[in-house]
Design brief:
This protein has 11 helices and 9 strands. It has helices at residues 20-37, 41-47, 54-60, 78-91, 93-113, 116-127, 239-273, 285-313, 319-343, 355-365, 372-384; strands at 133-136, 152-156, 159-170, 177-184, 187-194, 200-204, 216-226, 275-276, 279-280.
Length: 390
Amino acid sequence: MTSSTVDPLDFLDISSQLTDEEKLLQETVRKWVGDRVLPEIGEWFDRGEIPLELARELGSLGLLGMHLEGYGCAGASATAYGVACMELEAGDSGIRSLVSVQGSLAMFAIWKWGSEEQKQEWLPKMAAGEAIGCFGLTEPDSGSDPGSMRTTARRDGDDWILNGQKMWITNGSVSEVAVVWARDGEAVRGFVVPRGTKGFTTQDIKGKMSLRASVTSELLLDDVRLPASAELPEVDTLRGPLSCLNEARYGIVWGAVGAARACYHSALEYSLTRIQFDRPIASFQLIQERLAKMATEVNRGYLTALRLGRMKDEGKIRPHHVSMGKFANVNGALEVARTARQVHGANGVTVEYPVIRHMNNLESVVTYEGTAEVHALSVGQALTGIQAFR
C-alpha cells in the first residue's frame, strides 16, 4: 500500500468490514454531525448548554433506542448502534451521552424490565425524542459500589414511597421520566418516575469543566409516592441496573474512538498548515511520530470496537469483554487527545479547535459507567478468577 492509497482517518480500511447498511448509517450520522453539531458545538460547550430540539432530530434519524425491538425503535444491530455512537462522539461526548442515556439506560431499562403498559406509554415517545429520559442510579456516596445505595423504597398499602438522592444524572432536569433505582431491604427495585410527581425535584450541577454540552443533575426524592404500576416488575436485584450499564458502556467503547479520531484529524490538519522555521510542522520527525502513534491508537480502538460489536451481535459478549473495551479505548482516546493538544500548541486550549473540548469530556467518560480502575479489576477477575473489588 502506497501513501497515495491511504485514508489518514481509516488507515487500515476498517470501514470496509462494515455492511452496506452500517456504512450508510455511518455516512448519515457523520453528515448530521457535520451539518448540525460541529458548526455550533464550541459555542454550546463554552456556554454550557445543549439545544433540547436535538432530541427530536436524533429521534427522526432513528438513533434513540435504535438497538431495541418494537415500540417505534429501529431494531438495528449492536454494531450499527456502535457506529452511530462513534460518529456522534466525533462531534461531542455530550451528544453521544444524550443518545446513550436515552436508549441504553432509560429506554433499555423499561424495554428489558418494564411492564407492557410501561413500554407502551413511554418507549414510542422516547424513541421519537418527544420525551427525554434519565437513569437514577449513582448517589453522592455510591458510585463504583451501587450495592451500597441509600435511596429506599418502602410499601405503603398498594403504593411505594421513595426517599433518597441521586447524583451526576445526565438529562436529569430536562427529562419527562426518570428510571430510579432504590433499595427495598435486600431487594433492588426500579421505578418509573414521571416529571412533576410530588416530592420529586431536580437541580443542575454547575461549574463543570467537562461534558459542558450536556445536562447533569441531582435528583431529590422526598416521600415520593408512586402507584404499584410504577415499579419495573421483571427484576428486583442489582442485575437490573447493571444490565443497563453494560449496554451504555458498550456504546462508550465506540464513542471513544470517535473522540480520538476527531482529535487526531485536527492535529493532522493543523500540522500540515502550521508553518514554523519556514516549513509545516508535519515535516518534523517528532510531529510525525506523534501522528503515527495517534493514528495507530485510533485504528486499534476501532478494531476493538468492531470485534466487540460482532461478538454482541452473535450473543457471545460478556461484561468483562465490554470492560476491556472501555478501559482500553477511553484511556487510549485520552492519550490521543492530550497528544493532539500538544501538536496544536497554544491554539489547542481554545474551543476554536476540538481537542481541549474532547480532552475535558474524556476526563468524565473515563470515570462514568465504571471507572478505569473498576474495569481493570473486572478484566483482572476474568483473567485470574480472583475478585479484587473487596
